[in-house]
Amino acid sequence: MKRFRVKTLISMDPQEDPVLCKGWVRTKRDSKNVVFFEVNDGSSMKNLQVILDKDKEILSEQMLQRLNNGSSVEVEGMLVESPGKNQKVELHCSALTIHGDADPETYPMQKKRHSFEYLREIAHLRPRTNTFGAVARVRNTMSRAVHDFFQENGFLWVHTPIITASDAEGAGEMFQVTTLDLDGLAKADGAKMSGGIDYSRDFFGKPSFLTVSGQLNAEIYASAMDRVYTFGPTFRAENSNTSRHLAEFWMIEPEIAFCDLEANMDWSEAFLKHILATVLKESRDDMEFFDLRIQKGIIQQLEQVVESDFTRISYSDAVSQLEKSGRNFEYPVSWGADLQSEHEKFLTEEIFKGPVIVTDYPKEIKAFYMRLNDDEKTVRGMDVLVPRLGEIIGGSQREERLDVLSRRLGESGLTEKDYWWYLDLRRFGSVPHSGFGLGFERLIQYVTGMQNIRDVIPFPRASKTAEF
Ligand code: 4AD
Ligand code: MG
Which CATH number goes with the domain that contains 267? Predict the structure, then answer.
């Protein structure tokens, strides 16, 4: 018998032959003569309605007791037109196997709605909820859209390393990688270890870290392949316990040769619009769920963003606008200070009512690699800000002039010795180039309306949280 996924079954026409469906029970309603239950297998927001006629003695009374919310089942039956208005078809069960029970007394997922805080504590079961199923599917659609966009535009996907010796952001927020000194541990324990491992703690011969960004590696490849991008996990040991920060998050970083800041902004805008348009089209059911349950009106909001031009404004102008607003911010705005998320929200939600690209920040608050402007005070950096979240993209035109880059390294307290290979890219065939980094989870938050970043990544890693 042919097995179909729930997503296919619910949109199929009634079938002449019986069909097979496998999944987990989501709801069960027991009446005198029939049992109604719904099955979900993760392929769709919607469940398949199954009807089991008690008179047909398909299941014993004892087996019926085992058919519960959460139990895994295999159902055979005829797919027929449904008289109900909520679904097109329903499955009339002719045989049923229960693979795994879920005792209603102890199963942590009850029929009621659970809070996201509670679900974070049972992160191994939360993919079984509507919300986390929808997030997982939308995340998948967005990943595919990322690759589609770059592949269609002639970009090469470069797999940059996770272990690195350089601090790409110069911000000192890195996790260090060392080896376990098992031999030393064993000796300390008083135990004798034959053939014990005695690695040097610095396996690579110098301190090594988990990458905070693949940018510098991407620049190496852009200096030969023209257009490249990375898409992978990055790590930051920042102790920010906020709804927008993770210690491990996924970043997408295109790096483009022969590209200035204007073109970089164009790329970032086209890229974001492509992702939004794809999700709106391909994950319609899931987006309707988010619109209804998580963030009212989000579909229309995103549709508008796809249709409109992003505002572009210099940091200096953004600061004047904020000062002029007369608003009493918790952190006062003044030229030279970094924009706080309250300022970013004010710009996107109150002043410009949509995404805003802020450019030309003071050099002191940005990384050493951003191209210095002629005023010697600002750099060709850009942040893309969106309503509800603030910054989702950080990028820049890179400093391609050897002498200026050397000077900027020194000013930032970094040594040329550590970045000799990066400087080489400016010594040999240097090229004006630009790139940016998009925080994938922040974009998923923006698209779904989910408020906490820990709820848009399957296994959140934040300070003091890592169960498995
Ligand atoms: O602004 P950031 O630090 O820029 C870079 O890392 C550059 N090397 C990117 C580049 O030009 N290639 O980080 C980029 C984005 C931020 O805008 C934010 O969306 C996200 O990464 N991000 C985080 N997301 C979740 N948790 C954190 N702790 C994050 N830190 C940054
Ligand atoms: Mg940034």
Answer: 3.30.930.10
